[in-house]
Write a structure and sequence with these properties.
Largest sheet: 6 strands, antiparallel
Shape: elongated
Number of strands: 12
Structural class: alpha+beta
Strand content: 15-25%
Distance between the termini: 127 Å
Length: 360
């Protein structure tokens, strides 16, 4: 290869290298603006309107974590929206949702019912539910730490008489679970301080959302003993829902839409529970208290014959033939049942686990 060809070859190589670097610089410069544009998302130009942070079914009591302001396109803002700077957020707390609001949907003025509006409490109730008020104190009302929208369990404390000579049976049982608090005294809103902190205040009554059957039980329970409330954890409903779904108590159809599935789950989580009660007796607390009702000690109290004559031992029943009434021993199977009733163990009452369910 002569010298002239070698020079041409080196010149061509230099030109190719220069062209490659120039093309690389052009592509790098073109991609940088695209990356910057993608990194900065366009923000809607307009005022901030009040929207729901989560789904708000009908009857939901508005709390600070349920709503918030969000930028909204100016051309889509309506007169019914709450605008930041014009609406007073504090006046909306404690209001009730009149129509269902989905997450991210603007809250409208007609969609909320304030305590001053006619039919406010009726709007707060779910379909088929009732409002019932119970008297509480600082001791029985969780020291004022119960607020509208919270969920509580109801306990009944009573002393069951064991006869003339027997010691009373002290017992406390949880008779109802997952009751929604509608109001404390006549207030349906949570009071906050100027610093934004929740203020705890004392109250003498609590209004609860219950079914008609549970409302009847509460009225009877107040005549039996002392009513107390225990505050439920927010996580309790989710764990109980998972157990209910696993056991088949909550059935979500396979072909159900997302809206139907959310409705079924919401109903299961907010439904008051009126099942078998759990209870604790004095014997579970102190060795000097009884764990069950005492057995009658006198023959007369036990249904024995007049005059102090000893009657049959073990479970007995009264048998009347004409004008004569005798006490007869019963078989082992029926005796076990009567013995449970005499001992006060089990669920004998529709309201109380240590009460009577029928007249004897």
């Amino acid at each position: 290869m002569d010298r002239k060809k070698l020079v041409l070859l080196l010149g061509a190589l230099i030109v190719a290298i220069g062209t490659a670097f120039a093309a690389r610089s052009m592509f790098a410069g073109a991609s940088a603006p695209q990356a910057d544009a993608a990194a900065v998302a366009p923000q809607p130009e307009g005022p901030k309107v009040l929207v729901a942070k989560r789904a708000l079914p009908v009857g939901t009591i508005i709390t600070a974590d349920a709503i918030g302001f969000q930028l909204w396109p100016k051309e889509m803002v309506q007169d019914a929206y709450f605008i930041d700077g014009e609406a007073d957020m504090t006046k909306l707390l404690g209001t009730v949702v009149r129509y269902a609001i989905t997450a991210g949907e603007p809250v409208t003025r007609g969609g909320l019912v304030s305590p001053e509006d006619h039919g406010f409490l009726a709007a707060a109730l779910g379909a088929g539910m009732r409002a019932v008020t119970v008297s509480v104190s600082a001791k029985t009302g969780v020291g004022g730490f119960v607020f509208p929208g919270d969920r509580v369990d109801m306990m009944l404390t009573q002393a069951v008489s064991g006869g003339d000579e027997g010691q009373e049976l002290k017992a406390t049982e949880t008779i109802l679970r997952n009751l929604r608090v509608l109001a404390t005294d006549q207030s349906t809103e949570t009071t906050t301080s100027p610093e934004g902190k929740t203020e705890v205040r004392s109250f003498s009554t609590v209004t609860l959302e219950v079914t008609p059957r549970i409302a009847e039980k509460i009225q009877v329970a107040e005549t039996i003993g002392t009513i107390s409330l225990s505050l439920r954890s927010i996580a309790d409903n989710q764990s109980e829902l998972e157990r209910a779904i696993a056991s088949g108590a909550v059935d979500v159809p396979d072909d159900a839409s997302k809206a139907d599935e959310e409705r079924v789950i919401h109903q299961a989580m907010t439904r008051p529970q009126d099942g078998a009660s759990s209870f604790v007796t004095g014997g579970d607390v102190s060795r000097f208290q009884r764990t069950a009702l005492p057995r009658p000690s006198s023959p007369q109290a036990a249904g024995g014959a007049p005059g102090g004559l000893a009657g049959p031992t073990g479970p007995t029943v009264r048998v009347t033939r004409g004008k004569d009434t005798t006490v007869e021993a019963v078989g082992r199977g029926a005796g076990a049942m009567l013995d449970r009733q005499a001992q006060g163990v089990g669920d004998f009452g529709r309201v109380s686990g240590v009460g009577m369910s029928t007249l004897r």
